Amino acid sequence: LDFQETQNPHFEIITIHPVHVFGRSLVQESASDLGGTNGLLFQALMTETNAFGHYLGVHVNDVAVAHVRALTAKKNERENVQAYLLSGKKRSWREVYDFVKEQFPSLPIKLEPVDRSNYEVDASKAERELGIQFKGMEVQVSEVVKQQLELRAA
Q: What distances in angstroms separate CA 49 from CA 6, 56, 103, one per listed residue?
């Protein structure tokens, strides 16, 4: 932003700001390779330690789509800087807990379904200008859990 202000380039600057990114990892090859936000999520499910205040995520594919669509989105001619916040709907840990127990009943989850924060995010600009309908918690969580179960069974 300082560069844009001081140099006034002839091009637009676009920034993409995803919340926690979840979904099937294309780089994880074994169960021991688990890391990043998928690791935080799976650890939150499998231990009583929850690093998050509430469940707030965006699917990895939605982040990729946002990057591509930001390149061709209709621009506001008066603004040289565009910022997009990416997030699915905020959900409670009780909803996550109930979903995982229903979809993966044999998974020994230990998640304490307690929410500790109240902030909200507004991703409506990305929805409106980039035409994104964010995948929900169910898709995000199920892809992470399914991949970890597949890798642990291998």
A: 45, 17, 21
